[in-house]
Amino acid sequence: MIQYKAFVRKYFVRITAVSMLGILTSLSMVFAGYSLSFLFTAYEAEGDKAKTLVFSFLIVLAIWLFAMLLYYMSLLAKAKIQQIIKNELRTMIGNKIGAMTYTAFSGKDSGHYVSWLTNDVDALYQQSFAALFSGIENIAIAIFSLVALCMLSFYIGLAAVILLVIISVLPQLANRRLEKANAERSGAMEVSTESYKDVIMGSGIFFLSNLRGRICERIVAASEKAEQVIFRYNRTNTSVQILIATVSMVGQVVLLLVTFLAAVLGACSAGAALSVGNLAGSFFNGAGSFVQGFMTVKASKPLWEKFAGEIVAAPEGGNDLPVISEIRFENVSFQYEDHSVLVNRNEMFCAGGKYAITGNSGSGKSTLVKILLGLLPGYSGNVWYGELEQKSVRMTSLYEKIAYVEQQVYLFQDTLRFNITLGQDYTDEQIMKVIEKCCLKEWFVSLPDGLDTIINENGKNLSGGQRQRIALARGLIREVQYIILDEGTSALDEANAMEIENALLDMPNMCIILITHHLKETVRNKLTGVVVLS
User: Fold this and answer.
1) Which of 9, 172, 498, 515 is at a distance of 20 to 30 A from 371, taking alpha carbons?
2) Quick check: 465 and 492 in contact, CB under 8 A?
């Protein structure tokens, strides 16, 4: 719960302001309930009872209207702080994801992180902050109601205190079960989010296989698994709520009994029963809701611990790379569990050189490149960038010198400009230069919105070739020393592929590394070296 306490400290002023407004609202609501006794007092008054009753009614109405105004302001204040805290929670998660090692990040499905940003953020706010505000307001209602009950009769107040102790202690017995059920619910929602995303992304396969019914089947199967776990949480939570509600109901009846006994003994007026009926409801509902809120905040502990425990931060420190004169592999080996992929490889890629890595599927082409990029640190041997070995290098400085264009291109649902620049500051002139180098100019001039054209989800409104060329432009605009293309022109027609490859191979100061299954002879003749894997 350390992060939760840090949040409370950071937003202490705002949380205090919202809480104070909630307390004022609670006080006004309790006083409004207490004001109902004014009507009975007016009824028993001497003189013009009708006039006194009307006057008392107007006072009671004004008190209730003022209480409702405060309630409205309190709701708006809570809505605003909800917006702020949820944005801050997502900022925290975004920063933590950005600080993860690539290995740790890629070990989880993307739906896992989507669930953090949706389900878990909602749960954290509701269980940690909404429950906090609700608890503060409800304990204020309980305290103010208790004071009002004591003002009506000491015996009524004493009975309320005894019942408050009972209502506070009993639900604590189920706290551990509630925490465990909450943690299980969070995990189930993650898994279901991953499953839903998997079905939606793969729906095209079912459509084209004439198996549309499988879409619903898989969604329902994922939903049933998640809802079983969520039901167990709701069952535990409901049991606690019923226990609190039962004690509250019994408590209200007991307080009314005490009130009538006090009236018989002359310790209070008979009209006190009218206020006690309202105040007892406020007292027990407030006390019960406070206990429920307190337990909800405690039950959120697994969610806060989840982020601290699951996120593996990338190591900091290391040496910054200067200009990389060469990248050298010395006796590099790598294996996935018991399967060796690379064995004692010795390779060299010099600045400005032009290389190809070729071989059959599964021969280790992608593994070699991932080791070069620092994405698979579990290799044996040495990988040198000039005079620095990879393990001593700050990897962020490596990525300033190298660009990698994956075979499976991903485009963001944003503008063409963002998909090329990734939000970095480049001039339109710089962007247009890489657009021309990537044979995109003819397509670009046909766009009515130019660089502000919106790209749909993962480039669904583009052809495979257009997506590859945008990804290539994304790498070229950075003006790095080394650029690696993993089948980077496979979706292009031969003429466009040759034009782009020749343009890249003619760049004198950039090292080009092509990963390909089929090396064209026209390309081979321009290469400094070829790495053949088998």
Assistant:
1) 498
2) yes
